[in-house]
Amino acid sequence: MNSKIQFYIIIFFLALIGLGLTFYKSIFFGFPLLPGQHEEVWIVEAKITFTAKGGPVKASFLIPSAAPGYAIQSEDFASTNYGFNKTKDEYGYRANWHARDLQGIQTLYYRVQFFGSIRLDSTLLEEEPKLDPLPFFAEPYQIAVDTLIEQTRNNSADTATFTVELLKSLNSPSRSQNVNLLLREHNTIESKTELFLKLLTRAKIPARIVRGLFLKDGIRNKPLSELIQVYDGSQWVFFNPLTGNSGLPKDFFIWQKGGKSLFDLIGGEDSNVTFSITRDLRTSQELATYRANSRDAKFIDFSIYSLPIDKQNALTLLLLVPIGALVVVIMNNLVGIPTSGTFMPILIAMSFKQTELIPGLCMFCIIIGAGLQIRSYLSHLNLLFVPRISAVVIVVILLMSCMSVFSFKLGIQHGLGITFFPMIILAWTIERLSIIWEEQGHKEALTQGGGSLLVACIAFLVMDNSIIEHLTFTFPELILVNLATILLIGNYTGYRLSELRRFKAMIKD
Amino acid sequence: MIFANPAKLSKRGVLGMNMRNLDFVLAYNPRHLFPQVDNKLITKRLAEKAGIPVPKLYETIQFQHQIQLLPKLLENYEQFVVKPSKGSGGKGILVVLGKQSGHFIKTNGSMVSQKDLNRHVSNIVSGLYSLGGHIDTAMIEYYVNFSPIFKDISYQGVPDIRVLVFQGYPTMAMLRLPTRTSDGKANLHQGAVGVGIDIQRGTTLRGVYRNNPIENHPDTGKSFKDIPIPGWHDLLILASRCYEITGLGYMGIDIVLDSNHGPMILEMNARPGLAIQVANNSGLVPRLRKIEKMASKKLTIEQRVSFAEKNFSANFLK
């Protein structure tokens, strides 16, 4: 009894590991459970224009590195006449273009392609920031600022509510005197944000500006949008300075964090940076693999995806064998279809995958039929066993070559597929069937041969199913679930479907 | 309905193939003991050593070169049977009923020359009749003069009695009768008729032909019912003794009735079929489970047989 429990525990864990890994890969890396799923990919193009003054030009552009919720798939830097390099500093990556002698209007392009990933906000883990030195305002602004801060502080409970209240008083249509005074100097959106940051710093709240894009298909030539990040004592919180909403908006792609400049230019003027956004669709499979690789997931490294493409294709076929085995087990132990040779149906089904079902079936029947005829003649010769089976192998090869040549001459391309049939298996099938034919009659031989063929067809249809093909390849760990199922059936002592028919007479009376 | 309700089958205690393999063949028949029953030569030697009656072995031919000695070896025997030791399904069995001017007379009256007989033996030795084609040994043995009591209900061939013995207990039995379709063979899946036998009384019950109940023999038209098997108790003892000599817990034992020598063991089978249940109109599982409960008692052969006779009547769990 103890070993029984152990057996079930093993089965349970096999299934658990298999299903667990599958769901892990599906949820955390987005490996799709169904074939043909697509996900959106965003392509953002930054267009930088400036006028070169004649002489050396050095342009440096901040490019996104780790945007929470997105993974960068590829980058392009298009610009003729420029030397280019990519550098990294404490704020992230910068694209640097340089040229020796240029004049007139210049255009630089930077294109980045990225897609949705799980939201891992690295800012949560950032250390507590140091507060910038307190800013001072000239009178009469200083009094207005202090009064505003004092009022807001009285109306709020903590940093978050303070920020919201401050934003409200800046944005509300019925502004107080103080706010009106302050906004008179800062009436563009850009400088309003600047003012807001200054006010927060004055209130001793660490804050910084975050620039990025609201992703929407078809946006052309737009500047970056701004968000404010406020440190509430334990973590950075996002605020939209225009609406006062907190939290990182769903479709916001962060380009720049903190105060470092977006674009630095030496040897030019009138620079302008605009962004265009395009949406595209990619297969989920492709993106999941990218995601897994970029996350440095070690077990993906050991998976099939790390192999060259042609090896991957060979493996797809190999990974389908367990599915075929499962079909054979079910057909044998649960349904009770007699087959000649346990795994012959799997190998036949694999050949059908190369030849297609109907041509494969025809070729199989022709070869086996002709083989049986010749084998029955060989049995009159009273040969020893090994020479006899070898003779059958040779006859099978002869038949296969004849069929290939004839069908080719007749213009039937499918005939060439015959070479995919494993000839040794065919020879064995012929040998077995002919022994059954002689010993137990043609009826039994037809039953077993037909049974094998039926199981092969079912195995083929299952193996050819695009969902199953996709699952076995994308989630090879499902083999463990398959194994657990087969082990479980190996312990099944109930009736086979065929026995319900066989023993029907037992309950008639 | 094409299919029987599995719950009803289970209630009748019908043994299925999966359970037979897992709970009985795998559990009670150690693999290394299989050759004892798969090789008829080993079976015969074991039986002879234990004093169990078997058709007497006259000669064995193991190598091709021994075949030239055949005429000399066969000189003294008027009737005999030639069979492969590892054959299955009655394949390769040649029965010689007499000799006439250097030729051998077969059961159907046709003549076989010495050359034909030599070739037949050569085929056996080269493995033509053994499944898997392994080289084999030809056995030449006593021709069983089978008792005429089943003459009316069999068509040619040798009728035999299959007793299912579980851990030494006779569990179920049936009479296997050749038909025209079975070509004189006594295997049910080749078309022979199986007739259940009441273990308690030793009389026949109903017949089964191709998985369906049948009252009369399909060729002779005679009824199967209530034919007493002579020497039933001794026959059960004989079957039960086979457990001790082979050590296999779950066995089918094929017994023939010789008119001169009484019951003889013809062969044993470590994977006996399930059709015996249909012939007896009774499931095997309750009987097997009942015996499993007895197994620890270590009864003698006589005690085991009387336990079976007492319990396994035709009305057991009806």
Strand order, main sheet of chain B: write it out: 11-10-9-8-7-12-13
Shape of chain A: elongated
Question: Beta-strand level of the residues of chain A, as a percent range?
Answer: 15-25%
- Shape label of chain B: globular
Largest sheet of chain A: 5 strands, antiparallel
Please state the structural category of chain A: alpha+beta
Write down the secondary-structure element order of chain A.
HEEEEEEHHHHEEEEEEEHHHHHHHHHH
How many discrete structural domains of chain A? Answer: 3
Level-1 CATH class name of the largest domain in chain B? Alpha Beta
User: For the largest interface in this structure, which chains are involved and how many residues does each contribute?
Assistant: A-B, 32 and 40 residues
Strand percentage of chain B lies at: 15-25%
CATH topology group of the largest domain in chain B? D-amino Acid Aminotransferase, Chain A, domain 1
Could you tell me the radius of gyration of chain A in angstroms?
A: 36 Å
The description of the largest β-sheet of chain B is:
7 strands, antiparallel
What oligomeric state is this? heterodimer
What level of helicity do the residues of chain A show?
Answer: 40-55%
Rg of chain B: 20 Å
Tell me what the structure shows.
Chain A is α+β, with helices and mostly antiparallel strands and 509 residues long. Chain A has three domains: 38-128 and 211-296; 131-205, no CATH class; 306-507, no CATH class. Chain A contains 15 helices and 13 strands. Chain A has helices spanning 2-28, 141-154, 159-171, 177-185, 189-202, 284-294, 298-301, 309-335, 344-355, 357-380, 385-409, 423-464, 466-474, 478-489, 497-502, and strands spanning 38-53, 57-63, 70-78, 83-89, 92-99, 103-116, 207-214, 219-222, 225-231, 236-239, 252-257, 263-266, 268-283. In chain A, the strands form three sheets. Chain A has a five-stranded antiparallel β-sheet with strand order 3-6-1-13-8, with helices on one face. Chain A is elongated, with a radius of gyration of 36 Å. Chain B contains ten helices and 13 strands. The mean pLDDT of chain B is 88. In chain B, helix 7 (232-246) packs across helix 10 (301-311). A seven-stranded antiparallel β-sheet of chain B has the order 11-10-9-8-7-12-13. Chain B has 318 residues and is α+β, with helices and mostly antiparallel strands. The longest helix of chain B has 15 residues, at 232-246. Chain B folds into two domains: 6-52 and 147-311, D-amino Acid Aminotransferase, Chain A, domain 1, CATH 3.30.470; 57-141, Dna Ligase, domain 1. Chains A and B meet through helix 11, helix 12 and helix 15 of A and helix 1, helix 2 and helix 6 of B.
